[in-house]
Write a structure and sequence with these properties.
Oligomer: single chain
CATH class: Alpha Beta
Helix content: 25-40%
Number of helices: 7
Mean pLDDT: 93
Number of strands: 12
CATH superfamily: Spore Coat Polysaccharide Biosynthesis Protein SpsA, Chain A
Distance between the termini: 44 Å
Strand content: 15-25%
Low-confidence stretches: none
Length: 231
């Protein structure tokens, strides 16, 4: 029996950032001279609980990522694989690679979420050990409403039971593989990885996230991220 669970991380980074704009993918944009993707990888590189990292990347920028990994001595990155058309396809490509390292727990983390903390990573891993599936989340600050097709609000949701989901999302490896296989068999694409697990009838444990664990999607996010990094 193993003394320690092997933990792997898949970082899907094959998107080209259409909402962000620019000549290159947003994950290669630098914050204070450091590419966002590098900042993200370093968080897992420096976490003692993490054993292996696999990155799924766009084929047009494959060499750029390999060079980044080598030049920055990101030793836990064991493979860089070609991503797919959709995020789910990129994650699946990464999963198929990282299972070669016989991982017990698998984390999936957004490439452009560089402010994840060691505490969140560790808490997600611990929750997975106990509950098999776990994701960090925060309560929304704003009131959430539902609209009709004509552009009028028709309902206000109870903010006390709503959560904004973050990453890393963590799962026992066997469960996430089963969830992806079922999703593809059903031709289902989810907005996040935990939704695939929920379709198996599995419960996903909520881990307390932090508002600073932002995903950089727009130029406004980038400006805020630059502020967070400097502060």
């Amino acid at each position: 029996m193993r003394k320690k669970d092997k933990v792997g991380v898949v970082i899907p980074a094959a998107g080209i950032g259409t909402r962000f704009g620019g000549e290159k993918p947003k994950q290669l944009i630098a914050i204070n001279g450091i590419p966002i993707l590098q900042l993200t990888i370093q968080k897992f590189q420096e976490c003692d609980a993490i054993d292996f990292i696999v990155i799924a990347y766009h084929s047009d920028y494959f060499d750029d990522i390999k060079q980044l990994v080598q030049s920055e001595n990101l030793t836990k990155v064991k493979s860089v694989v070609v991503g797919g058309k959709h995020r789910q396809d990129s994650v699946w490509s990464g999963i198929n690679e990282i299972v070669k390292f016989d991982v017990d727990i698998l984390l999936i983390h957004d490439a452009v979420r560089p402010f994840v903390s060691n505490k969140i990573i560790s808490n997600v891993i611990q929750a997975v050990k106990e509950y098999e599936a776990a994701i960090p989340a925060v309560a929304p600050k704003d009131t959430i409403k539902i609209s009709d097709d004509d552009g009028f609000f028709i309902n206000t949701l109870d903010r006390n039971i709503l959560f904004a989901v973050q990453t890393p999302q963590g799962f026992k490896t066997k469960i996430i593989i089963e969830a992806f296989q079922k999703a593809y068999a059903d031709k289902f694409y989810g907005t996040d990885d935990s939704s695939l697990v929920e379709r198996l009838g599995k419960k996903v444990k909520i881990v307390e996230g932090v508002y600073g664990n932002i995903k950089i999607t727009t130029k406004e996010d980038f400006e805020y991220a630059s502020y967070l990094y400097r502060s």
